[in-house]
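Collaboration report, partner site 2.

Our partner group contributed sequences for two proteins of shared interest, and the home lab folded both. The records are reproduced in the order in which they were received, starting with the first partner submission.
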Amino acid sequence: MIAVLGAAHAFPPVTQALREPDGLLAAGGDLSPGRLLAAYRSAVFPWFSPGDPILWWSPSQRMVLQPSQVRVTRSLAKAMRNRRYRITIDTAFEQVMRACAAPRDGQNGTWITDEMVAAYAELHRLGHAHSYEFWQDGRLAGGLYGVAVGRMFYGESMFHRATDASKITFVNMAQHLQRHGFGMVDCQMFTPHLESLGAQLISRDEFIARLETSLGQPQPAGMWQESFRNEPSR
């Protein structure tokens, strides 16, 4: 059995999460800013399919990236040097979310519903959710979004419309967060793609210990107004 959430923004202890399916902790509640922020502070995140109740998860292992350990292959480094692009922050948040929600090869649907878009757009308006946007030839060609609490960044999803666009955005995100003292990026679940970029699995207990250190640290002023441009030499 799992907990059914009421009006309060409290979550049950993550040790009560199911082993199968791994990490399922609770159902119900809403996607209000207060509840979402309480979830992230508690090592919990929402993930559910259209038509299902809101489900809350805290898996026994967590995929995380230490920003200083982001992996840049030789081919990716070459692409980053030789392509003309611009990366902005928080200039097209909802566009990025909707691009992440677009159907992908081999997928029947998306968990990024209109309800999720509205909820995270409100978090963005309140200054908690952020997007990194990859622009090429004036076109939004890739990006990612997530939530920042203290100096902890919770990555939610990324997309690309051009080769390596999401990888380049991810690397720039990691470098940006490292410069501003963020110690960890939560990538939630294992994928080979995230592993190839330097993310690794850690236990829930280790994740929570690192999380507690990062949550209490204030974010540097102005960090979300920065942008990056690459202009290859001719």
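Second partner submission, folded after the first:
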Amino acid sequence: MSQEKESGPPRLGVLRLALWGAALVGVAGVLYIIAQSSITPRAKGGLTDLTRGEMSRLILPAEAGPAPVTSFLDPEGKPVRIGDFRGKVVVVNLWATWCAPCVLEMPTLARLAEAQKGKDVVVLAVSIDREKDADKARAFIGRNAPLVFHHDPKSSLPFALKPPTAAMPTTLIYGRDGVERARMLGEADWAGKDAAAVIDRLLEEK
């Protein structure tokens, strides 16, 4: 029993977390829209016409905001920031091994990363698992190449966002200029044509 507790929440706990996560996705989405609705004008690089299909729940900020300066750890354990990838389109996925929707969508993010190889696109899967679960999270990402393991063991990044997010997974898309262009609260299929169209639109910007 003790080993089961150390490896993560029991199955019932995972189910409860998934249900709570689904509820938080809705609440977080409403709060995000409210927070952004007071800001004008619209962000440049319009993506409104691309919020369809798998991207129909994509939230577009009224005004693009810069990426947080909060650091997380790269595969070698060195601090890195989203802003370090300025000049590229950056897809940041916040996830955890205890989050069932996160686990389900990760292979689609891996396929997105594979499809965008050779382009100015970076897909960062940032785990918010606790330090003691880092090996488990690293092994999971290892099964989803070409993604590599990034880690935020203190769960600082979700709260550094503007507005913060409590939803898992949360995926953020940053333009070449290093500012947020869109975010998705909850699971999505990132391997299809709808996600590719969003990335291609942002790649067109110079």
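Feedback sent to the partner group on the second submission included the following. Helices lie at 2-7, 11-37, 100-115, 134-142, 157-160, 193-203. The two ends are 55 Å apart (CA to CA).
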